Amino acid sequence: MLLWNCCNEIIPVAQKLPSIVESISPICVRCYTSENHLHLFRDCWESSIIWNYIFERTKVATVINLHLFFNASWRDWITYNLNQNRAWKVMFITSIWHVWIARNKTVFELKVSKPFSIYNALFIDHASISYILQVKETPVIRAPKPTWYPPTYDYLKLNVDGSWKDLNEAGGGGVFRGVSGNWYMGFSSKYDASLPLAAELYAIREGLTMAVDYDIQNLELETDATILIKLLHNLDDTYHHELSPVINDVACLMSRFRSIEFTYIPRSTNKVAHCLAQYSFAMEVGHNMFLNPPPFARVAYEGDLEGLKAIPDLNKTMEQGTQEVGESSAVATSTDASAIVSTQILFGTIPTTVTTSVAKLKK
Ligand SMILES: [Zn+2]
Question: Which of 26, 73, 98, 104 has CB 3.0 to 4.6 Å from 15, enough for a Cys bridge?
Answer without folding.
Answer: 26
